[in-house]
Fold this sequence. Notes:
Helix content: 40-55%
Largest sheet: 6 strands, mixed
Radius of gyration: 39 Å
Low-confidence stretches: 729-733
Shape: flat
Number of helices: 26
Amino acid sequence: xxxxxxxxxxxxxxxxxxxxVVTDAWEEGKFLLNFLPSQFVLLxxxxxxxxxxKAKYEAETHHAGEKVVFYTQRSKGELTFLxxxxxxxxxxxxxxxxxxxxxxxxxxxxxNTQLPxxxxxxxxxxxxxxxxxxxxxxxxxxxxxxxxDKLLMDxxxxxxxxxxNMDKDVWKIFTxxxxxxxxxxxxxxxxxxxxxxxxxxxxxxxxxxxxxxSLLSIYHRCTSRHDMDxxxxxxxxxxxSLKEAxxxxxxxxxxxLALDHALFKRLSHAIENGEFLAGYTQYIDARxxxxxxxxxxxxxxxxxxxxxxxxxxxxxxxASLQVFATYYRAHFAVLDTAVxxxxxxxxxxxKWLRPFQYxxxxxxxxLLDKWFALAKDYQPSQQGLLKEKLSGKGRIAILVCDGLRxxxxxxxxxxxxxxxxxxYAFAMLPSVTENGMxxxxxxxxxxxxxxxRYAHLKTQVPDVEVIQADKLxxxxxxxxxxxxxxxxxxVGEKKQLAALKDINNYEKEIVEKIDSLLDMGYAKVxxxxxxxxxxxxxxxxxxxxxxxxxxxxxLDERFCLANDQQTPSSINLIARQDDFCGSxxxxxxxxxKPFITKGAYGYAHGGFxxxxxxIPIYEFGKDAGVEALQVNIANKKELQHVAGQYFKLKxxxxxxxxxxxxxxxxxxxxxEGSQQKSTQIVTIKPGQLLDNNEFEMPSAGNVxxxxxxxxxxxxxxxxxxxxxxxRDLDDLF
Length: 733
């Protein structure tokens, strides 16, 4: 508001000849020159008579006819050569800024404020753009002139520029309030140091959980601003008082990953020593629920909570393998997910991980005891699943993921936007890739060749297309599609426990593939697997299972093939008289631990645990939305026999008066094989025929055109374009 008062004074004083003298003996009003209108020429005048003569000469010689403001630190009574201007034309006296402000304030709001001079001056400097109501609040003591919190946020976000742009008087009062806020004696500090001092005080309060409401509010505002992420990372890195901090005493919103790691180690030690864990879980709950600490807390804390609090519940009621599978999916799968995440995070810290592994093993033993008690009723139900699911109506795609165990599929299911159902099946035994894949593709026996398996499915579903998942793009127009995704099993067998970090990332990849298939117009998308896997964990030699004796045909990490029946021993084995690779007997240990073999340990499959044998049959599909304008390729017949070097694509839209079908943006994709050659975007309206899209035929002679909705990426229509020469050659054979 003071900017307006000063401008009004300047304009009034310059109403005559346009010469205004501003006196400011104490330089308290110099900040007002920042508000000087652009049509005025500012001539600063030093404190001698000669300086006044020079200024007057410059004004009359170089600025005749212009409006000039002379600014001097001489009082009006000390003026000599400028006195004439001051007396006869215009003069604004700022020698007593307090009086100047109080007079204008009273004239504006009719209130004599009791604000001290220093606060009054600061209020004036901060009043630019403020209303009279703001001044009334200040004058009556209802509000403080300085918005300390806002200025402090500016300082923390950009220390140097904030200090540079702040008036020295404002800075002095601001820093005094800041030091009072953090409870420290005021000292002269560079802006960057002051900002770190403030953040250190905030961090001290968070670490001890003794932070004031005002500082906590500042911290929460910092964590909610993404433009401060880099600055916050620097503040955190420079904080040096964490060494002796107690993670259980810290505020749950704190930003220190190191405290989360310290909490994990404390909890691990408590588990190992049989301590009461309620205090730990209460704190972890608070930490997990913290919205302000989203970017500053480890994701695996919720997994720690799952493991520590897990109970098998009503497992005792399970009386069949079918009920068991439902129980595993609905109740136990989260524990397998939690353990997998924790192994990935703490793989290289076995000392601290072991107690959590122990808790898991106790819960899993109960599960496995129930599973193996029902094992005599186990019947694989994997055979011919692909054919069965592809027999449905509409466009159908199946994502076959090698090694996708049920708990990962369940995580994917929870993340997906367009889920329909989460069913299961029982895998073939042993639960190895060639066995499970052969069954999925409907082969009569074990088929080692992937291409032979694909060929067999094609005899059952002639129009099916089988491709690797990484080859998926809009050129794929098959009515029935099978995508092969082998990353989980490949990386697991190669990297063992180290693969678990990679597997965590594959969940997102699979969700993206599901979304892509649905966007392409597939009405149903299924996700299934050949088998699952177990995490054999941190192993001692005593954990490994001695190999059975006798006529052993093959000893794998998770199963044994033999030609003779094993005699009872200290090893509790499950025997199955199923033929596999010519063996008479299959043997499985009633545990998730491996037989002693020459191979690496960590990730394994082939055994007879629920994690290996219960496979997902999960369905995804979009709900019917608003029907879009129908569009199709109108000249498909012509495009089957193109003569010449170019062809025209004719696109026809239906006639419609529906307000939701007024137009549609279409992408025109041209593919030569699976390689995209060009893309065009067109907009089509109801009843419109677009026939001006001309394309060059490729040298190979054939090309595929695919129409894709520009917004949803749904495939709308497609056709093969064939040159006349290639068509004629085809007719010869």
